[in-house]
Amino acid sequence: GVAAIVLDEADEMLDMGFAEELEGILDAAPAKRQTALFSATLPPRIAKIAEKHLDDPVTVLVAREKTASGTLPKVRQTAYVVSRAQKVPALGLVLDLETPTLALVFCRTRHEVDSLGESLSGRGYRVEALHGGMTQDQRDKVMRRTRGGTVDVLVATDVAARGLDIAEISHVVNFDVPQSPADYIHRIGRTGRAGREGVAITFAEPREHRQLRSIEQSTRQKIDIAQ
Prior knowledge:
Elements: E1 3-8, H1 10-15, H2 19-28, E2 33-38, H3 44-53, E3 75-81, H4 87-98, E4 103-106, H5 110-122, E5 127-130, H6 136-147, E6 153-156, H7 158-161, E7 171-174, H8 181-188, E8 198-204, H9 209-219, E9 224-226
């Protein structure tokens, strides 16, 4: 028969250490098949997979949506310049001010996820954590509670939150400036989905101004610096 293989968020699978498994599946797949690859960004390692496993592929690029003059983009992008020591209280203020339906807060490491989750729980928020050190059963329980509307804040690492599609996410908060513009795109893409409006907030330390400018240049979108 004819097999169909759809690769969605392949970058996430590679980040989670499934490179060999992914290659094995593609190598074992029938020669007569249809293969489609979907990715918000196309980094070199994903482009190499496409070049190796796709047969004379057609590349489909989705044009950037142009907003009418005077209108706001679907995702409002804001940054606050704060010192590391002030980030937790600053996040509490932002959450109180923005009153999100559900906020997805990104941290760089598992330890930061657990630590921030405990801090926010102590401040009265209903918090769940999501990172690569959790079992699939633990992840599933977190997702059920999150989708069930019993969570105010979901704190996660990049790898754990790749591919998340939760309609209730109204705000994405970068507790640290993402390492690359591609990471920023993946992060803020968790909100403002399917025509809904969303908010992306980034906490930047004073020395991280250059990283913000790099993200702006790459995305061609303005990140407003707010007080």
